[in-house]
Design goal:
This protein is α+β, with helices and mostly antiparallel strands. The protein is about 45% helix and about 20% strand. The strands form four sheets. A two-stranded antiparallel sheet has the order 1-2. A two-stranded antiparallel sheet has the order 3-4.
Length: about 160
């Protein structure tokens, strides 16, 4: 079986079709790469903000690690805090100024009432939780029992 020779016109049409397929493939490939590169760069630039937003929702109803909290401002942080000791107890702060504020106002800032039982507790010995879902405000609990009761009463 012999192949018939293609005319110049047919060869040109075939080449145009192949070029269009190649250009389409190239456009899709580079477009996908470009979009992926943009999303990757956005994630790298905003990774701490992304983690912070995630933590504000994921840690609700769970014990918040003390190293993610500023005990002077009672806020969840988007970075790890400084662990500093005062009067034999470890406190966590976002910076040295917050530590100095606690030292200067120890009676007012180091103790806080438990939101469920009302007992006054030291922040250094407390369990920590988020006050509301999606917000960085921290509440301090005397023990696991009041911690669980607080979240049960909020979920009703």
């Amino acid at each position: 079986m012999s192949k018939r020779k293609l005319t110049k016109k047919e060869l040109l049409e075939k080449k145009v079709i192949e070029d269009r397929k190649f250009n389409r493939t190239l456009l899709i490939s580079f477009g996908s790469f470009f979009i992926l590169a943009i999303f990757f760069n956005i994630f790298i630039v905003f990774r701490y903000d992304t983690k912070f937003v995630y933590r504000k929702y994921a840690l609700y109803g769970k014990e918040v690690p003390t190293e993610l909290v500023c005990m002077n401002g009672d806020k969840l942080l988007n970075h790890k805090s400084l662990k500093l000791s005062y009067k034999g107890k470890d406190y966590f702060f976002c910076n040295r100024d917050c530590y100095e504020h606690l030292v200067n106002h120890y009676k007012e800032d180091a103790f806080i009432p438990d939101p469920f039982s009302g007992d006054t507790i030291c922040k250094a010995n407390a369990l920590l939780g988020l006050k509301n879902k999606g917000e960085p405000e921290i509440v301090y609990f005397q023990n696991r029992k009041t911690f669980n009761q607080y979240y049960k009463s909020k979920n009703k």
